[in-house]
Amino acid sequence: MAVLRRRGRPHSLLSHEFIIHNRADIAAALVLTVLGGLMFEVTAKTAFMFISPQHNVTSTTPDGDVVYYVYGTSDCATISFYIFITIILHAVVQEYTLDKVNKRLHLSKVKHSKVNESGQLLLFHLGTSAWGIYLAVTEGYLGAPSSLWEDYPHTHLTFQMKFFYLCQLSYWLHMIPELYFQRVRKEEVPRQLLYIGLYLVHIAGAYLLNLTRAGLVMAVLQSVAELVFHMARLQYFTNPDRQALFGVWAVVFVLCRLATLTLAVLVMGFGLSRVQRQSLDMEHGVFNTLPIRLSVLLSVCAPQVWMMWRFINFQLRRWRKSRLEQAARRKVAVPARPPGGRRRDTGPSGHHENGLIKSEDGSSPRTRKIRSPPPVNTCP
Asked: Using CA atoms in the order 232, 163, 307, 147, what is the torsion angle rounded to 10 degrees?
């Protein structure tokens, strides 16, 4: 006969605890409601607006008709639908993967939150890197860098390109309520909001200013660096002695920052300044004026320089701390000798017998071992 578990007190409907514990179920109910609308002819058109990207344009080519997409107001409905999808996926990964890992590791509350953050972002940046590299290769952006600014404005997007940007915006918008769902500490909220805001500004800016090609490549570079960082941090939490991936992350981080700066200067400083349409035409999606180019260039370069400055300061602090630890270990390992070069007999009182020191009761004292200080936590 099975033993019944005693359940805790149920939370009142629409209370904070009820929403936090049942957020995935609430989001799933809303998603199923939209999907159920496809079954009826009256609501099918409205439901389809939430599920699939809208504002499609048919273009005639020698190979036949090709469907492209532009951005519009209906994208807000699609983004809101995929925000609920992302909340469900976030809760599934948290419950079935990260919570089990945290139970095995027995970490503190601070490390527990960092493992949750790195676990979620690791999967997201892995998917972003793979998807972005696939799009860059299939669209030919890597083989022909000049295609990043040629034929500007890039108003007509393929289905996968538009869906990529909609998913990016949905993920980072869903991270705002997740700060409430995950009960992030008040000290961490400003840092998290700044982190989320930078992603939203750059992704939405590339999408609305029709700089989707350059934005795609920059997003891949950022995701590759973040992917290696979160892999290194998760490896450190599982085994603090294994920190080799942090060295790999340092190299990848610097290379990605330099590549992003070079790409921004190349596209905004040289590429767009030579295209034919040098004007501001919002009706046709042209935002190619000198003030706009300088603003975009500043918005891209300023965060890169700021991150490099913080990275250099962190590496210098880590190097100084390592030098101090090594000096302290050498002082402990080599005892100081008295002046004159002769060693003082500071051993226990007693007499020598057969080359051994014997105490008054005839027993020989044990040699004392010198313990070195624990290694410094170098995790960023």
From this structure: 110
Structure tokens at 46: 């409205």
Angle of helix 212-238 relative to helix 189-208, nearest 10 degrees? 150
pLDDT at 376: 41
219-278 pLDDT per residue, tens: 999 999 999 999 999 999 888 888 888 899 999 999 999 999 999 999 998 999 888 888
Token pair of 10, please?
């149920």
Q: How confident is the model at residue 369 (pLDDT cuts 50, 70, 90)?
A: very low
For residue 330, the tally of other CB atoms under 10 A from its CB is 9
Residue located via tokens 């409601």: 33
Tokens, residue 210: 């029709």
SS3 category, 302: helix
Q: Are strands 64-69 and 356-358 parallel, antiparallel or unpaired?
A: unpaired
Write the CA distances from 322 to 119, 316, 327, 376, integer angstroms: 29, 10, 9, 8
pLDDT digits (tens, 9 = 90+) for 285-342: 899 999 999 999 999 999 999 999 999 998 898 888 888 888 888 877 766 555 555 5
Rounded distance, CA 230 to CA 125, Å? 9
Contacts for 307 with CB less than 8 Å, ≥ 6 apart: 257
Q: What are phi and psi of 105, to 5 degrees?
A: -85, -25
Exposure letters 244-269 (e unless 16+ CB within 10 A, then b): ebbeebbebbeebbebbbebbebbbe
Q: Which of 160, 80, 104, 94 is nearest to 124 (CA)?
A: 94
| pTM metric for this prediction | 0.82
Q: Phi first, then psi: give them for residue 61, nearest 5 degrees.
A: -125, 170
